[in-house]
Amino acid sequence: MLQVAIVSGKGGTGKTSIIASLAALARGKAVFADCDVDAPDLHLILQPEILERREFYGIKRAFIDKEKCIQCGICQDSCRFGAIADFEVETPLCEGCGVCQLVCPEDAVDMRDVQAGEAYISQTRFGPMVHAELYPGEEASGKLVAMVREMARDLAAEKNLDLILIDGSPGIGCPVIASLTGVDLALVVTEPTVTGEHDLVRLLDVADHFGIKTTVCINKYDLNPEAARKIEELCGKRGVKIAGRLPYHTSVIEAMVKAQAVVEIGGPVAEAIEDMYKGLEGQL
């Protein structure tokens, strides 16, 4: 099966709006995976009906057995995160390093799994979707992304679908790397600004490091034609194709207000996305 990740170097570039339209154009032939687990929002447009929930466990957290504890204070002195006070572990501060368990002379510390989020299998008007929610303040977002992608692959195999569309996190951090690893194509969404160009370079560098084929979409390109031209020159020098040039148009806002994909509304942006989708099919 083919996997396409839609990513961006920063938030707010229109990545989720674009993948919602790509989901609509796939016409039931793809599984959609929202891998922006820290701040998922694809569900706002696709309005999924949750069919299955799965618990997610991130890092292990320390717990002190009061019956075994002799209150020697060694664990408290050894904790570099200040997570132990009055011989109790403040769970939100615990980083799961296990030092307290290692230094405890009475074996009074246990490292336990703590639920850190949930993953869901859902049905949308465009097809099946896998998404997740990481609880506030929890760690291991990359591990949850890996879980979402595994569930998406299993679901695609079960339903005999050959395409997975991945909505990745913005930036270049751990969840982005987890979203990109092993995909067949990464569609990088950028904007015609100085910061857009800078963040695009960082993301292309990450993709190059992992040997991932990339293509670029310039959103709202007509707001700054000069900056858009520089991005095109940059992509040309790096051998990266421009998959699409989306104009600025109020139809995007109209679609967001109605919780619909842009291609459901129509207009010049929808037409540009449709052309881009055809080009992506060609690249794949």
Give an overview in words.
It is a single chain. With 284 residues, this protein is an alpha/beta fold. The chain folds into two domains: 2-47 and 125-283, Rossmann fold; 59-115, Alpha-Beta Plaits (2-Layer Sandwich). 38% of the residues lie in helices and 29% in strands. Helix 1 packs across helix 11 (268-283). The radius of gyration is 22 Å and the shape is elongated. The protein starts with a strand and ends with a helix.
**First-last Cα distance:** 11 Å
Query: What's the rounded overall pLDDT mean?
Result: 94
Using DSSP, what is the number of strands? 11
Main beta sheet = 9 strands, mixed
CATH topology of the largest domain: Rossmann fold
The secondary-structure class comes to alpha/beta
Write the layout of secondary structure elements.
Layout: E1 2-8, H1 15-26, E2 30-34, H2 42-46, E3 49-64, H3 74-78, E4 84-85, E5 88-89, H4 99-103, E6 109-124, E7 127-134, H5 141-158, E8 163-170, H6 174-180, E9 185-190, H7 194-209, E10 214-219, H8 225-238, E11 241-246, H9 251-257, H10 262-265, H11 268-283
Parallel strand pairs: 1-8, 1-9, 2-7, 2-8, 9-10, 10-11
Antiparallel strand pairs: 3-6, 4-5, 6-7
Helix pairs in contact: 1-11, 5-6
Give a brief rundown of this model:
This protein has helices at 15-26, 42-46, 74-78, 99-103, 141-158, 174-180, 194-209, 225-238, 251-257, 262-265, 268-283, and strands at residues 2-8, 30-34, 49-64, 84-85, 88-89, 109-124, 127-134, 163-170, 185-190, 214-219, 241-246. With 284 residues, it is an alpha/beta fold.
